[in-house]
Fold:
Amino acid sequence: MVVMFAILGLACLAGMALLFGFIANYAFRRSTPNRCASYAAVAVGVLFTFPAYAALVEAGAELVSFVGVAVGTAILSALAFPLALIMTKRKPVEPDPSVFD
Structure:
């Protein structure tokens, strides 16, 4: 049962990363695909861990707990980045030549 929930959680993360990559591709038309995918991945990571941050603030937890959740946010963002990059490279737009990535 635990494996099934893990698979469903990763599938939800993948779907959200693809959706946010699609949105970022149109919201930031002049940005490079890597930058759009980064925005999308960070948004997905923060969206998934926001309830944990809210629970820690409500409980008055120590700083170590916040660092642990921040590491989880970074891991989720790293997992979402390749999928968001697939979506942002799907329909490329002309990047801004003044932006260096």
About this structure: The chain has one domain: 2-88.
